[in-house]
């Protein structure tokens, strides 16, 4: 069976695979007003890093969802070790197993781009409360990305499309989101040049467990990132279903 980029990061248990890393995630969440009464969906939770942080930091109601069995195993182990009351669920972002208007906040980190994007965005809008917020971090094609390069990236990551910023904005609007903001925009290359990695982040394959085919996938990913990093970017979108003024929530930390 052919193995994918998702299989590789699951096998190696890579945390914070998105540009900006976990430091970006923590800052975004600290800027939101999250209380113990807030219901949060970690959409595509991976190893559970963000879900665990949410539960520890805000004592909020966290639902962690992923489709990959290896990611779910790692997340389950993490939550159990830290005694965190997180609802861990196997499911698809294109068909969320929740009722309408269930969540106050959805966090999707490098997960939406790997779905049928219109279906996933429609589901996010459905399960969010009317005043709910969607935070997404996803790869974005910069205007100068050539068609040949775009095709290569789509094939490698096994995604249906690689959207430009304008196309992302249009997709949000078609799914019913009205207030859409770009909180951060950067190319992958610029991010790599300026990032300060947390000691717990990044790619560190365990020496006792390797797989040549998956190792090749990781190396190919790194080469593509370097080759197209000036033409491949990412955006942090904050989208709401109704028009509400956005004011950053300042913490005492």
TrEMBL record:
GO molecular function list: S-adenosylmethionine-dependent methyltransferase activity
One record GO biological process: methylation
UniProt keyword Transferase, yes or no: yes
Superkingdom of origin: Bacteria
UniProt KW keywords: Methyltransferase, Transferase
CDD domains in the record: AdoMet_MTases
Any one Pfam family match given in the protein's UniProt record, by short name: Methyltransf_11
Keyword Transferase: yes
Gene3D superfamilies hit by this protein: Vaccinia Virus protein VP39
Domain Methyltransferase type per the UniProt entry, residue ranges: 41-135
PANTHER family: METHYLTRANSFERASE (PTHR43591), RHODANESE DOMAIN-CONTAINING PROTEIN (PTHR43591:SF110)
Annotated protein name in UniProt: Class I SAM-dependent methyltransferase
Organism: Peribacillus psychrosaccharolyticus
